[in-house]
Amino acid sequence: MDLNRRRFLTLAATEGAAGAAVATAATIAPGAVAQAQDLRRDPKPLPPDAVGLLYDSTLCIGCRACQAACKEANGMEAEVPARYAAWNAGTWDSPTDLSGDTLTVIQVYQHGTMEEKDSPTDGYAFVKRQCMHCTDASCISVCPVTAMTKDEGTGIVRHHPDRCIGCRYCVLACPFGVPRYEFDDPFGQIQKCELCADVPGQDVPACADVCPTGATLYGHTETLAEEARRRLATRTGEAYAFPRGVLLRAEDGGDPVTDRARHEAPMGPYVEGIYGEHLLGGTQCLMLAGVPFTLLGVPEDVPDTSYASITEGIQHTLYRYMIGPILLLGGLIAFAYRSARQHRPEEWD
Amino acid sequence: MAHAPAQRHAPIGGRVITLPFVILAAFALAATFFLVERFVFGLGAVTNLSDGYPWGIWIAIDLVVGTAFGCAGYAVALLVYILNRGEYHPLVRPALLASLFGYALGGFSVLIDLGRYWQGHNMFLPWLSQYNSVMLETALCIAAYITVLMIEFSPVVLERFGLKNVRRKLDRVLFIFIALGVLLPTMHQSSMGTILVILGHQLSPLWQTQLLPLLFLVSALFMGFAIVVFEAVLASVGFRRPMETFILNRLCVAMAWLLAGFLIVRMADLVFDGDIARAFTATYDALTFWAETLLHVLALFLLWPRGPRPSAQRLFLAAFMLLVAGTLYRLNCYLIAYHPGDGWFYFPSVGEIMVTLGIFSVEVMLYLVFVKKLPVLHTVEAAYREEHAAEARERPAPG
């Protein structure tokens, strides 16, 4: 047996190789970091007939008609938080957050005396939460079984419970905290807004359909973005005829189309920017507000690149055509074969 | 034993039903109770999971930490069969066994955690596969690896039942499975890091990096080696076997280099991105970051080679420290440094903890049964143990 000699030689070899590896790692680490930033795949474009909602926080009066209409349209149960249970027998639906029974919710920012609407100090402001229908959605990218899909035309992000395995990676990954799982049901499923795509007779999503002030407006995303830009460009306090319910792109390329009476009101004070226009690769639902978006509980300090494009960039670089893994396997097989030849158990020879 | 010199492995024998075994079985029984509750009343009835923290310890500990512990087989196979270090061969079978249970029970945890488990097989239907999903790749790799581990371990069973023909045939192609047994963990252990990249700002910048796959891969390797050392020392104490200190010491050298590499890459990345500044703020993130870093550095200090023969205590402590450090890194990534937004809180429920303990107990129980009944451990030590058993017979039998 030459075990001792071999031990000595391999000891030297192991340490030498490992040392070289660490030294290499130390030199290439910063370079690798820089390179990793470039692994992003190209961003996804907005679908041709992308639709969404424009929520204008300054127009919202907090009546929650959208919430009630959404529940009715989607056949969902009323929610009563524990602290209201003593006097609310369930007749008054009062959700405080999205859930397996609530696909949209109006929340409120409150500060100090709460006197002035849309003021960050001593004021209050409403925010409507629902699926943002991202252009490049994380939930679609993470789902192992294609249970989240994006409609090729309208871009509506749909969920398919018949495919879903309930891993809740979409719940974890959504930057807006939108998909919700029914934890209290032994056969629970993921729930999220689908812009009433499957609700019979609901050409316009229920929330936009019932909104009395036009705070929630349904339409083509690009048309809604134009409308939002128009509002931002208008002087605060100036009279403006806000479209209600629906604002669609005109087929002939003319002015956007709405079939309802407009809501005359003075233009609200806005903070800069359209929430959702660029952030995280853009979302099909947009928001205007009178207070900084971050106060409304939505992520703001985030990149304009979608997280999906970063992850998929890494993954598709490592696994392009499976070349890497196949080469690695080939090498491993060669080494394993060599070792197997040398260390054949003697009792079978 | 007549043919003792030729045989390399032997069952260590002894009673299966011992006091520790009964205690472990009690834990497993308690876990079963909570599992029944989970399936009858839903995940919410047993766990503290929420839409803010949709993944709890069944994923973070049972799967993510559990499979890292299960990397013993990966680490040793890499060493013995790929780097051709035959002298580590005595460690292969126990390591494979630990991996088999670590991974199988990690997979089991995923199944009980799935909210729509009755559709779990959709993961294997190619027409539903979503090839951008890191989870799809991870899950398929883990499922394949569990199969490969069973094949890699099957010679032990075949040997026990004297199926030499099958064994001989398997032996001819085993190298392919050994290669797969190194490829698959390389893929899914790194992917467990990639899984978190898409969380973006929801994971603290002290952990969020595009190098997560590399860091998870390296941490899986040194945790795998640490488990080998940890178990070898435990086995030698528990079953009164000689310590393979020389082999283990050399393993520690390899671990030290891996650990140093991990720390260098991790710190270089944080400095390069400027995120390191967050480590100097008064936040829980900074606290747990330093705890994690300190544990890694401490482990490195213990592992750093000094003399030719380190004591068993130091080996054990180093391996233990490394496992704690690696565990904290993974827990930080999957739970502690994950911030879904205001208003969410997670701490595992009694039910979750009991199920995790139960699964761990089953792992240890199976390990004990297997090493006692199957030729898992090396014969050299089995012979040594017989000598000691003879000595012990002269003394009153231990309770």
What do these coordinates show?
The complex is a heterodimer of chains A (349) and B (399). With 349 residues, chain A is of the alpha/beta class. Chain A has two domains: 253 residues, 2-Layer Sandwich (Alpha-Beta Plaits); 33 residues, no CATH class. Helices cover 30% and strands 14% of the residues of chain A. A four-stranded mixed β-sheet of chain A has the order 11-9-1-13. In chain A, β7 and β8 form a beta hairpin. Chain A is globular. Chain A starts with a helix and ends in a 7-residue tail after the last helix. By secondary structure, chain B is mainly alpha-helical. Chain B has a single domain, classed as Formate dehydrogenase/DMSO reductase domain (Formate dehydrogenase/DMSO reductase fold), CATH 1.20.1630. Helix content of chain B is 69%, strand content 1%. Chain B is built from 13 helices and two strands. A two-stranded antiparallel ribbon of chain B has the order 1-2. The two termini of chain B are 27 Å apart. The N terminus of chain B is likely disordered. The chains are: A alpha/beta (349), B mainly alpha (399). At the A-B interface, α1, α3, α4, β7 and α7 of A face α1, α2, α4, α6 and α7 of B.
Provide the fold topology.
The complex is a heterodimer of chains A (about 350) and B (about 400).
Chain A: H1 3-36, E1 51-56, H2 65-74, E2 105-110, E3 116-117, E4 123-129, H3 138-142, E5 148-150, E6 157-159, H4 169-173, E7 180-181, E8 190-191, H5 206-210, E9 216-220, H6 221-233, E10 239-242, E11 245-247, E12 263-266, E13 286-288, H7 307-318, H8 323-342
Parallel strand pairs in A: 1-13, 3-4, 9-11
Antiparallel strand pairs in A: 1-9, 2-4, 5-6, 7-8, 10-12
Chain B: E1 9-10, H1 19-41, H2 43-46, H3 57-69, H4 72-82, H5 92-113, H6 134-160, H7 164-197, H8 212-238, H9 245-273, H10 284-303, H11 312-336, H12 350-373, E2 377-378, H13 379-394
Antiparallel strand pairs in B: 1-2
